[in-house]
Amino acid sequence: MVNQEKVSDKQIKDILVYINGLYYKKPIRMMFMCSILGGMRSINFRSLQVHDVYKPDGTVKETIDLKSDKNKGDRTAQYRVNQQLRKEFEDYYGYLKSRWKDRFSEDTYLFTSQKMNKPYNPRSIYRIFSSIYKKFYIHGGTHMGRHIYITKLINNGINPFIVQKLVNHRSVQTTQRYFLQDADLLQAAVNTLKF
Predict the structure, then answer these.
(1) What pTM was computed for the model?
(2) Whole-number Å distance between alpha carbons of 121 and 14
(3) Which of 53, 113, 150, 158 has its CA 20 to 30 A from that of 172?
């Protein structure tokens, strides 16, 4: 079931301000950005390693190509990196190098909850995300960011077939379930008709 809750740009900005005040803010912010700017599922971003996102020289790749073990349904996936997400990843690279020091490598996971190089537990990520959304009276968990990403693209007039490819849906019908019937959007659509 697709969450039909509408999340405003202001709510997103408020959430980011809140995250920036947290003790462990860098990884949480980056996971959030992977979700809302990259459209990734938690299974995708929780298992990201340095070699998935960064070239050997430390620059951010144009696309994040994930093998089937890092995606839903045992299928490969590809996520495109926009300018804002690239900037977030660039900043995060410095954090990773500083955190891991001499243990930093291309196999280092981007998001770990302990001092060991193992990815976050999915339940832990869900608890983090749902507690953040709850503070802003939003009902959602880890999938809410993907919902925001898809809905924003569709509401910005991006062709659903393109959105389908961006989020690795098998069917465009799955993508179309994310369209929220917003009264303002419906009115704007009919207002485009002039003869």
Answers:
(1) 0.88
(2) 26
(3) 53
